[in-house]
User: What shape does this take?
Amino acid sequence: MDSRNFTYMFYGFATAWVVVIAYVVTLVARERKLIEEMKRLRHMIDSGESRT
Amino acid sequence: MREKLIYALAAVAALLLTRNLYQMFIGLPDEVLQGAIYRIIFFHVPAAFTFMTGALVSMLASILYLARKDFSADSVAAAVTEVALVFGFVNLLTGMIWARIIWGVWWAWDARLTFMLISCLMYAGYLMLRRSIEEPTQRARMSAVLSILTFPAVVITYKAIDWWRNQHPGPVLTFRTGGGTMDPGMEQVLWLNFLGILLFATVLMMVRMRQEEIRREIDGLRREAHAI
Assistant: This one.
């Protein structure tokens, strides 16, 4: 019982951190994508304006 | 300035959470009846409080948006709901792992657990609703209404252990019982961990808010690109 008790405590702590870290990773990836999209649009607008 | 604040808060949160981990494992003994597994409470309860704080902020920001039509209030509501939901799921999952040892089952359909699940699913619905509406004003208005309508489920979740006889343990913290049900040393670590998690959640919310601002800027750039 005691070793199982300790193992499940470890699972509990690990789960908490894994969920939070997975969210942080998606947050970072999303930010990178948004910044790239913003740069792409800015570049598109700048090149469009220089042509007109 | 905001960037520096994010890093400073993240550093304080990391230090506090590390200190708390040391206290949990080295400073505190096992609980007499539950053994080592009781330590899950140091994440389970602070995660629930972080979820509930986030839900409250989301509701207030949503009311502010509907009153003033201020898009920064909408950004706060969207950011805080998403971060709060992450901690809502941390609360549910850690609770299930604790229950497997103490109750012998992963889940029980009692009022506290069921309303927590309903609250999380409704906030997940809020995020899905935001993704499904393109027009920013309509998106902000509809999601503000949903956030306000969802908050009572969080209040019921909080009060469920007072209102109904549950499988879930009753209140143990001093501010709800008047004292005597939880060791003061353990309760202190629990509150300090809540502070650490809340600081960390604030950091995530600030990062998420910045993304909402970038997204609004992208909307503006797209309109400009279409005009050209």
User: Anything to note?
Assistant: Residues 14 and 38 of chain A are 36 Å apart (CA to CA). Chain A has a mean pLDDT of 88. Chain A is about 95% helix and 0% strand. The interface with chain B takes residues 1-2, 4-6, 8-9, 11-13, 15-16, 19-20, 23-24, 27, 30-31, 34-35, 37-38, 41-42, 44-45, 48-49, 52 of chain A (CB under 8 Å).
